[in-house]
Amino acid sequence: MEEQESGIIKKFIYVNRKAPHGTIYAHEALEVVLIAAAFEQDVALAFIDDGVYQLKKGQNTDGIATKNFSKTFGALDMYDVEKLYVEKESLEARGLSEEDLSVDVEILPASDLKNLFNESEVFFNF
Amino acid sequence: MKFGVLINEGPYQHQASDSAYKFIEAAIAEGHEIYRVFFYHDGVNNGTRLATPPQDDRHIPNRWTELAEKHNLDLVLCVAAAQRRGMVDQGEMERNKKDANNIADKFRISGLGQLIEAGIQADRMITFGD
Question: In the beta sheet, which residues pair with residue B3?
Answer without folding.
Answer: B34, B124
